[in-house]
User: Fold these one by one.
Assistant:
Number 1:
Amino acid sequence: MINLPSIIFYTFSVLAIGMAIVVVTSRNVFHSAMALTGTLGVVAGFFALLGADFLAASQVLIYVGGIMIIMLFVVMLSQQPFDALQRQTNTQWLYGILFAAAVAASLIRSFRDVYRGVAAVATDTVPTSAPIGRLLLGDMLVPFEAVSLVLLAALVGAVVFGQDRKAAK
Amino acid sequence: MGEIGPLLSQLFHTGRDWAAGHGVPPLGAQILMMAVQVGIIILSISLVPMVLVYAERKVAGFMQGRLGPMEVGPFGILQTLADGIKLIFKEDVIPRGADRWVHIVAPIVACAPAFVCFAPVPFGKGMTLVDLDTSVLFIFAVSGISVIGILMGGWGSGNKFSMLGGLRGAAQAVSYEIPRVLSVVPLLMFYGTQSLRGIAVAQQARWLGVLPKWFIFYPVIGQISFVIFLICSVAETNRTPFDIAEAESELVAGFHTEFGGIKFALFFLAEYAYVFLASAMAVALFFGGGDGVILPGGLIPSWIWFLGKTFMIVFMFLWFRWTFPRMRVDQLMSFCWKFLLPWSFVNIALTGAWILWRAHS
C-alpha cells in the first residue's frame, strides 16, 4: 500500500491538518491568515491529485490569489497591538467543540460507505476544463446563472452596506 | 536545423533508460529525469534576471544619453555578476520590530512561484516542460501567489512605509489581474484551448502565404487584447509607470525597504522573472510562439525565434520604464476599473461576434 501517490496524499493530509490547527491556535492573526493560505493551497494539491486540473488551478487563483489576499488586507488594516493579548477562547468554546464533533461524525457517517475502497488518487489524467465548460453552459446552465445572480446580489449588498451613509448624501 | 527540442527529449529518454538499466526502479528514473529538467529550467530562469538587469542598465543609459556600466568586464557585462556576489555576502539584517519568520519567508514566497510558472511555457518545438491542458489558467493562478510574498514583506518588516507599499502593491496586483485574465479570454475562445503550446501552434499559418496568422494581426480584437495584456503585465510586475508599490519619493522603497542582501536579491529576481514570463506569454499568445517570419522555415530554429521575440517584448518593458512618469494611486485604480476592464469586456463580446460570423460563413 506504500506507493508514491499515497505518500504524497498523506503528506498533504498532514500538512493541511497541521496548518488548519495553526489557524485556530495562533495568537497572531496574520500568522493564522498565512496558515489558512497554506491550507487552501494544499486543498488545491488534493484536487490535482484527483486529476481535477481545472479545479486545482481555480482553487489557487480564487482562494490563494484572491480571497486570502483580501483577508490579509483586512488583517493588515485592522491589526491592533493588544490583539495578541486577547483570550483565544470565549464562553462558548464547549458548544463549539460539540458542534464540530457532531458535524465531523455526520460527515464520516455519510461518506464512510460511499467512498470505501475508492482510491484517493486519480489514475487517469484526462483534461477536465472542456467537460466542465460544456456542463456549466449546457445541463447546468440554470443553476450556474442562479449562483451568479446570488453572487451579484451579495456584491451589490456589500457595496450598499459598506458605503458611508453621510458621504452618500 | 538547430532544433534542440527533439535532441533534449532523446537525451532524457537515454538518461532514463541508462538509469533504469543500472538498478534504479523505473519510477525513480522518471523522477530523476524530471528533476534534471526542472533543474535546467530553474538554472536558466535564475540567469535571465542577470541578463535583464544588465539590459535594463544599458537601455537606461542609452535612453539618457550615457554609457551605463562599463568598468567590470568588456562593456560592463560582468557588472550584474559582481552585484550578485556583493548581495550574497551582505549582512542579513532583520529589524527588531519585524516579525522574524514572516520577514524570512516573504522573499521565498515572492520568488518561488515565478519559477513554477515557467513549467508550461513552450520555448520552442518540443521544448515545453509540462504541456498542461490548463496552462494559461495555471500561470495566472501561480503567479498570483507572489502577491502574498509582497504583502508578507510589507507586514513582516514592521515599518509603516513597507506596510503601505505592500498594501498598495497587493491592491494594484489584484486589480490588474482581472483585466489581464479577461484580455486572454478572447484567445481561449478563438482557439478553443487553454494550452499555451496549443495556442502557439494554432497560430503557425499564413494569410495569402505571406502575413503570419498571429493573433496580434487579427483586426481590432488582436490589438485590443494585446494592449490590455501588455499594460496589465507592466502593472503586475510593479514597474514604472505603475510602481506605486515602491515609489521612492513617497515610500522610501516600499515593501522591500527593510530587505537587504540575498533577500532583496530574491525580490528583484522575482520581478525580472515575471517580466520575462509576461514577455514569453505575450509571444506564445500573440506572436505565434516559435513561428518564424520572412526567412524560409527551419533556417533559424524555433527556440531562437521564441527567445528573440521575447527579448523584443522585454525591451518594451524597459523602454516604458524610462519613458513614462509614475501614475498616482487613485488614477491607477480608476484606469484599471473604469477603462481596462470595460474594454476587455467589449473585446470579449467582439470576439464572440467574430466567432459567430466565422461559424455561419
Note: Residues 83-360 of chain B form one domain.
Number 2:
Amino acid sequence: MKRSIPLRGWVFAITVVAVGAIGFHLVIPWAPAGSVFREARFATIVDAAAAAIILILGGWLMYAVNADMRSLRRGIEKMSTGDFGDMMPVAGSAEAQALARAFNALSNRYRGMYRGIELERMRLAIIVNSMPDGVLLMDRNDKIIFMNKFIQEAFKPKGDQGGLATIGTLFPGLNREQVMFHMQSSTSYTFEGRLGEQYFSLTFRAIAGRGPELEGIILWIRDITNERLLEQSKDEFLSIASHEMRTPLTIIRGNAELILDTVHSEHDLSKMRDTVQQMSTSIHESSIRLLEIVNGFLDSIRLERKIDLKPESAKIENIIENIVKDIKPSFEKKNLTITVKKPAQELPTVFVDVGALRQALMNIIGNALHYTEKGGVTITIEAEKEMAKIYIRDTGMGIDTEAQKTLFQKFQTSAKSFGRMTEYGSGLGLYVSKLLMQAMHGDIALQESAPGIGSTFVFMVPFNRPSA
Amino acid sequence: MKALATILLVDDEPEIISLYRQVLTKAGYEVRIATDGPAALEAVKEELPSLMLLDVKMPDMDGLEVLAKLKMTKEYGRFKVVFLTAYAESNIAGLSDEALKELGAAGVMQKGMDIHEFVNQVKGYLAE
C-alpha cells in the first residue's frame, strides 16, 4: 500500500511554515522594489494570516486529539462495565493509533480473563444450584444475599424479613436470638427441625470478618428425612428383634433354672425324669428357634446389603425333585403327601442361584408341612413367557386376611399391630425368601389362602435368556 | 396344702405358659391359664383371680386391649393386673412403664428375669 502523508502531517508542515513566517517577519524579497510585498505592512498581514492559520489548525489539532481521547475514554468506560465486546478503532494520529492498539491488547487480555471468571462463576452456580443441600448467605445486617435453588424451591424465604428472622418463622422452635446466642460461643450451630413430613438439619456457620464483628452467616440446610426414617426403622427393628429373642431366652433361662433347682433339691433324680426331660426339650426347642432368629437376622442383613448371588443355568425340575427327595421323610412322618406336577415337555433352563432358590422353596414347603395336619402339598411347575411358575399348594390351616397383608414383611409385623410371631419360625422366613427371589429377578407371592382350606404360594423364576 | 393364691396367666406362647406355670406352681400358687385375650376375660368372669399376669404382645387382642375391655367390667379393681412383657421397654406401643401403669396395671414385669426374682415380684404384688 502506498504510504501517503497523513492529514496531520500536512497540518504540522503548514503550521511550521506559518510559525516561520511569523518568526522571519516574512516579506517577498524578489518582488519589485516599492511593491507592497516588500513593505512591512505586508509582513504584518502575513503574520496575522499565519497567526490565524496557527490558531485554526491548533484548535483543530486539539479537537482531533480530544476526539482520540474521547474514544479511548469510551472504550475504558465500556470495559469497566464488563463489556469487552468492541475493539477500539485504530485511527487518528500515529500516537493515538499506538495507544488504541495497546489498549486493544490490554482489553483482549482482560476479555480472556473475564471470560474465564464468568465460566468459573457459571460452573460454581451450576454446582451450588444442583446441590442436594441448601446453602444461604446472610450479611451482618441479617439480609439474605444469596440462596441456592434448593432453598428457593423448598422454602421460598422472603429476604425482606431478614435472613435469620425468616428462617426462624419457617422452623418452629428456632429463632434469631437462639442462633445468635450459640454463635457467640461457637463458630457453628446445628439445629434439627421438622417441616411437615420432612426433617431438616440446619447448620449455621459464622463468617469471620477482619474485626471482632461477624461478617455474615452461612446456613447449610440438609434434608435428613431418609436418615430419620432409617433410624426409626432401625429402632423398631431392634425393639422387635430384642423382643423376639427375649422370648426363647426367657424359656431357656427359666427352664435351666428349674432344672438346677430340681438337681439341688431332689436326691432321687430318677423320680424327676419326666419333668427334667420336658424342661430340657423346652430348652432345646427354644435354642433352635433362637438360632433361626439369629440366622434370619444375618440373612436379612446380608440380603438387604445385596451381597451378590451366583446365578447359573439350572433345570428347575431337578431342583424341585431334590427338595422333594430331602423333605419327603418329614411329610411321611406326619402322614402327609407331597406330589410334583410338571408339563410333559421339558422346560427351558432357569437362571438362578441354586442354593438361594432352594432356601426360599424349602422355606415355603417347610411352612406348608408345619401348618398342614391332613392332606398334603402339591407342587405344580408351569412355563409362562420368560418365567417358570411354581405353585405350592397345601391343605393346611390357611392364613387369615389380616395376616396376609403383612405376610412378607420383617417379623410379619406392622408397627401398629405389634410384632406378631408364631411359636414356629423366626418371623423372617418369608421376608428373607422374598428378598432372595427378588435378588434373582424373580418373585414370590401368596396366590390365595382360605382359613381351614389351605394356602397357595407362587414362585416366579426367570428362564435363562440366551445371550445375544 | 391349700394354694396361696390364684394367678391367671395370660400368654399366647405355650412354652412361656409352661415355664411360668411350673415356676408358680412350685412356689405354691394355683395357676390358671388363658392363651388369648377373650379367654382371659372369660376366665375372670368365671372365677376371680388374685393376680393377673398379662402378656402385652398377643395376636388379635393385645394386652392393652384386654385391660381396656376389663376396665368396663364389674370385676375390674377386685384384683391386680401386672403386664408381663419381653420388650426391654414398652416403647414399641409408644408407652412407657409409667404409661402402662396409668392404664390401670399395678406394674410391669420383664420376661427373662431369674425365676426366683420372678416369684419374689409376684409375692410383692400379692402382698401390696
Note: Residues 14-26 of chain B form the longest helix (13 residues).
